[in-house]
Amino acid sequence: MSGEDAPAQQQNAVDQKQETKPAEEPKTESPKTESAPAAAADAAATPAATTEKVPEEEAFTYRALVLTGYGGYDKVKLQVKKGKPTLKAGEVLVRVKACGLNFADLMARQGLYDRLPSPPVTPGMECSGVVEAVGEEVTDRKVGDKVMVLNRFGLWQEVAVVPATHTFLIPEGMSFEEAAALPVNYVTAYMMLFDFGNLRPNQSVLVHSAAGGVGIAATQLCQTVKDVTVFGTASASKHETISQGGVTHAIDYRTKDYVEEVRKISPKGLDIILDPLGGSDTHKAYNLLKPMGKLITYGTANMLAGQKKNLLAVAKNWYHQFSIHTLSLIQGNKSVCGFHLGYLDGETELIAQAMNTILDLYKQGKVKPRIDSTWHLEQVGDAMRKMQERNNIGKMILTTEPMPEEEKKEEPKKEDKKEEKKKDDKKKDDKKKDDAKKEEKKDDKKKEEPKKEEKKEEEKKEEVKKEEK
């Protein structure tokens, strides 16, 4: 699902138009009855007309989120781009309505996701919207089609150019938010469980981060198979929700050892384990497998610690990286699989098969994306923070709908509150300093009092001596 061409097309759109427009401009032939000076006047007017039309083409603008460098939440900035993107053969132009936020986007912001090109670049692997234009050789998409898009990057913007093969028609009744929440999470969960895992009735599955996008998708897909037992790890506050969603045994990974909890219920171990964590957790997962069990590792979330890249967390993850000898696999009768949707961008037929099955399940009411919250493009930093702090249950969505003026006005108020808090903190610090100074003065006074007493005693002695004399 390569989207490498799209940003390049958008950035060079103006230059291409300026080069092609004069060639496309029809020549105005002068009537035979027209005098030579009149014809010359028309010829002189032609370049002026052309110059007027170029700015008209350039007037097309759209907003895009751009990763300007690696680091904190402020590195993703909202920018305005100029020039309408051009279409190559086999491509479509989509007016984006909603975008999906994924854990990989958080890692990309820190420079930990190698499928995103170096900054400046527009992130975003999935979106939904309406087809506005189609290129040559596109036969199965038309203007007005509502589609969901799966691409390597470049979708966090108001318009996006993508290959038509990367788009899928939105079923009747599915909202743009649901459509943007479906591609990455559900294709990932489906291919891991069924293509690698060969999930069958009466099996057991461990789903880490069961309240996240992939976790909820995997749990729903497990329910499409008879009598599958799902173990799900999540913080205690999310247990009720994931249990209602199909998790059989919810485990609080923050307060309990999930390995011990699984062993209590299933002493022999598990049939399938989905591991998005990496590091030492992959070792634990392998040891939890039953004979003929399958470990499917698809991420390194343990690397993500803090707003910016944490070198200690990265080093720790690599130090504990799982590796195994083939002889151990043979003796243990176990299998280890690796999955990365970003590296399947060229396998359009394989992904299309998975998507078609998922959409059929949606139409049957067997799967349905759970939306945690929707954020404006201007709020991408806050959305990323919520996901990174593991405060979401379900999918985080970015909407391209402009933020209402009232909400924009409220933003400075937040800043004012921060300033007020800083002032309050400063006052508190100043008060503490004043109190400390007062205490010092009291201590000095206490120290001086004995000296005064001694001085008085000496003076009394001197007076006594004088009286004796």
Automatic annotation (TrEMBL):
SMART domains for the chain: PKS_ER (SM00829)
Gene Ontology CC: mitochondrial outer membrane
Protein keywords: Oxidoreductase
GO MF annotation terms: oxidoreductase activity
Biased composition (Low complexity): 33-52
GO annotation terms (biological process): negative regulation of mitochondrial fusion
Domain Enoyl reductase (ER): 71-398
Xref: InterPro entries: ADH-like_N, ER, GroES-like_sf, NAD(P)-bd_dom_sf, SV-ATPase_mito-regulator
Basic and acidic residues bias spans: 16-32, 405-469
UniProt region (Disordered), positions on chain: 1-54, 395-469
PANTHER family for the chain: SYNAPTIC VESICLE MEMBRANE PROTEIN VAT-1 HOMOLOG, SYNAPTIC VESICLE MEMBRANE PROTEIN VAT-1 HOMOLOG-LIKE
Name this polypeptide is given: Vesicle amine transport 1
Organism: Seriola lalandi dorsalis
